[in-house]
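Working notes for the structural subgroup meeting. M.R. asked for a predicted model of this chain before we commit to crystallization trials. I am recording the input and output together here so anyone reviewing the notebook later can reproduce the run.

Input as submitted:
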Amino acid sequence: MSESSIWIEKYRPRTFDEVKGQEVIVSKIRAFVNQKNLPHLLFAGPAGVGKSTLAIVIARSLFGDSWKENFVEFNASDERGIDVIRNKVKNFARTKAIGDVPFKIIFLDECDALTKEAQQALRRTMENYSNSCRFILAANYSSKILDPIQSRCAVFRFRPLPDEDMLALAKFIAKEEKVNLEDSALNALVEVAHGDGRKMKNTLQSCAVLGEKITTETIYSLASFAKPVELKDALDVAVKGDFSKAKDKLLNIMLKYGLSGIDIIKQIQKTIWELKIEDKEKVCLIDKCGEIEFRMVEGADEFIQLEALLAQFTLLQHS
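Returned structure, recorded in token form:
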């Protein structure tokens, strides 16, 4: 296990009661487990919100100490072709479960990375071995999963973890690990994680390695996240018409925190709503952010595109 993942495993929930932020989903899954009658499941949602964790909790609850013998995980981003379905998945699915539960569990993580051919093979496997095996599929984008597979599953859509759950978890870890975490740093940690519990744990652990006291500056620096107040200041300067100064401020922010163009454009989009301009102007700038982000994804030079975006902020005063 890599050193950076120690806290992720150490503070991974082991029971349904420990899973936070997905209470509605957990209550429904718990009912299935209590009856030992689990359908095929599809967990869809952003990264770090508990999809993999809940799959393991299901296995622990169903099989007890023998859960590792009745549970297998495949990561489709590593092996995404049809061979992994035909060989590894099918070989595990055709064997009987150990214990009093009549089925095993196959967990396919990031299954939206599977090729269409592999998904077609998976569809047949789910049909043929439904008596001896249950599938739990996890995906960031359920739209990339074939409809015939989705129709065979009970679909649960996960949401980002609420701020209060993130705060409680961060405080708990800081107390357990005897980390000195400032209140302002705690809020910054939740802000940079955006509801991603895994990212929050990784960031907190990385900061703890650097020193006993964790500050806001440390968190923003390690997370490659610009301070909101600094970014807002740069945009305010652009809105006031000083394009050259705003450009220099934005470049300094990117160099200071090691941000890419895609990183900074996402923060700019959120910061626009805090600017003291008309709502109609905010909407126009949000639209421009989308256009600039698309250009960057397509390979355009990020610095030229960011300058073009700042030019739109400057032109507000002259439109």
